[in-house]
């Protein structure tokens, strides 16, 4: 919030920064731990703890921090926030843990293809966002989309 105010960004950008600040980012650390051959079990355990904590903390923090950037009559969609966290973070994490536990013969191949599939979905989201005109990629630069595309190509 302080960063957004210091840079005098519009309310929408300020709220976007707040969402990024309060959401768990452990899934990306799992990807780095996987590719770096780090302690993946520790990374996944920390991710799970972070995600379970964020079910309660994220809506509260957004309500508290967002007051300055939101209209007074705005109601935080707490149920939708929790639903998104469960569907897009907890379910994939739990699915991967269950596959590794109960299907040990296929989990390595399953893991590789799920990383590839998730990166393809992310690439589709980025391309769709850039193509919709909602993101001024010339104003913000092409470094992030190009690096994402390069990283995606390395997975195949």
Description:
78% of the residues lie in helices and 0% in strands. The chain has helices at 2-6, 11-22, 26-35, 40-66, 78-102, 107-132, 137-140, 143-154. The longest helix is centred in the middle third of the chain and has 27 residues, at 40-66. The chain is mainly α and 156 residues long. The termini are far apart. It has eight helices and no strands. α2 (11-22) runs antiparallel to α4 (40-66), α5 runs antiparallel to α6 and α6 (107-132) packs antiparallel against α8 (143-154).
Comma- or semicolon-separated keywords:
single chain; 156 residues; mainly alpha
Class derived from helix and strand content: mainly alpha
- End-to-end gap: 39 Å
Supply Rg: 18 Å
Reading the helices and strands in chain order gives HHHHHHHH
* Overall 3D shape: globular
Largest sheet composition = none
Helix content percent band: over 70%
Enumerate how many helices there are, as a single number.
8
What's the average pLDDT?
75
Low-pLDDT parts are none
Assembly type of the shown chains?
single chain
- Determine the strand fraction and express it as a percent band: under 5%
* β-strand number: 0
């Amino acid at each position: 919030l302080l960063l957004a105010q210091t840079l005098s960004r519009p309310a929408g950008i300020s709220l976007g920064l707040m969402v990024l600040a309060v959401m768990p980012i452990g899934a990306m650390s799992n990807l780095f731990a996987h590719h770096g051959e780090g302690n993946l079990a520790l990374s996944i355990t920390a991710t799970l703890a972070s995600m379970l904590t964020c079910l309660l903390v994220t809506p509260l923090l957004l309500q508290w921090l967002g007051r300055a950037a939101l209209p007074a009559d705005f109601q935080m969609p707490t149920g939708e926030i929790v639903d998104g966290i469960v569907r897009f973070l907890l379910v994939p994490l739990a699915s991967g843990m269950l596959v590794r536990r109960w299907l040990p013969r296929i989990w390595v191949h399953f893991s590789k293809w799920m990383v590839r599939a998730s990166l393809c979905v992310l690439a589709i989201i980025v391309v769709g966002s850039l193509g919709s005109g909602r993101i001024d990629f010339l104003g913000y630069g092409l470094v992030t989309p190009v690096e994402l595309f390069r990283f995606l190509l390395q997975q195949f």
